[in-house]
Write a structure and sequence with these properties.
CATH architecture: Roll
Structural class: alpha+beta
Strand order of the largest sheet: 1-2-3-4
Number of domains: 1
Number of helices: 5
Strand content: 5-15%
Distance between the termini: 59 Å
CATH topology: Ubiquitin Conjugating Enzyme
Largest sheet: 4 strands, antiparallel
Shape: globular
Oligomer: single chain
């Protein structure tokens, strides 16, 4: 047996490990870019057990879905950052033309006809927020009943939306559907526990605490490690 044939499994294993590290780096970079965006009312975190699975919660602050608290998951493709658009599935039952009433999957093709390498997850989150604020009659519907009511009987459509918003609020304190430390959960407000924390948040910070800690290991908007803005 030649030395080349013996070496091949080792090389394959090294390449596989490199691919895993590279993918994890890309995911961390995506999350850092996401955190630097001004995304209001929407919160996401990667699973503690699977970096390709992210948990999210959307708090709707305006529009006919106002008051809704909608849980969802984002599943990245196995070959991320390549592949198709990440899959978004709502755990909360939502009456919306772009959300499949059976599976809860969001139709992303309306916002991203083709998912490109330069598309970012924070842009997908913007899309998730936008579909609840502004409904376009031209959108590709995956819920024909919702689409039909939206176009022909808006009052009945609003009633269905209000019902799903109310139900989403009633489910806020439900136990996790997955056994994962990063699954986003909520507990009822307890004054003795939460008031001191709220007070600490509202108190102005000392100047020393607000000083930057140093250069970021990734420049905002970049996937290049140990990068910094160019001097002008």
């Amino acid at each position: 047996m030649s030395a080349k044939m013996i070496d091949r499994p080792i090389v394959w294993q090294i390449n596989k490990q490199h691919a895993i590290f590279s993918q994890e780096y890309n995911i961390l970079s995506e999350y850092k870019m996401l955190c630097s965006q001004d995304l209001k009312g929407i919160y996401v975190i990667p699973s503690a057990l699977n970096a390709l699975l992210w948990f999210g919660v959307q708090f709707i602050r305006q529009g006919i879905y106002k008051g809704g608290v909608f849980r969802f998951t984002i599943t990245l493709p196995p070959n991320f950052p390549l592949g198709d658009c990440p899959k978004v599935v709502f755990e909360t039952q939502i009456f919306h033309p772009l959300i499949n009433p059976e599976s809860g999957e969001l139709c992303t093709s309306w916002g991203f006809p083709e998912w490109r390498r330069n598309n970012r997850i924070w842009q997908l989150l913007q899309y998730i927020t936008k579909i609840f604020i502004k409904l376009d009659t031209k959108m590709t519907s995956v819920n024909e009943e919702a689409s039909c009511l939206h176009e022909n009987n808006f009052e009945a459509f609003q009633d269905r939306v209000k019902a799903c918003v109310k139900e989403s609020v009633n489910q806020v304190f439900n136990p996790p559907t997955m056994d994962d430390p990063h699954y986003i959960t909520f507990n009822p407000y307890v004054k003795e526990v939460h008031d001191p924390i709220k007070q600490e948040i509202y108190e102005p910070k000392d100047e020393e605490e607000n000083k930057p800690l140093g250069l970021s290991w990734v420049q905002p908007g970049s996937l290049q490690p140990f990068s910094k803005p160019e001097a002008r």
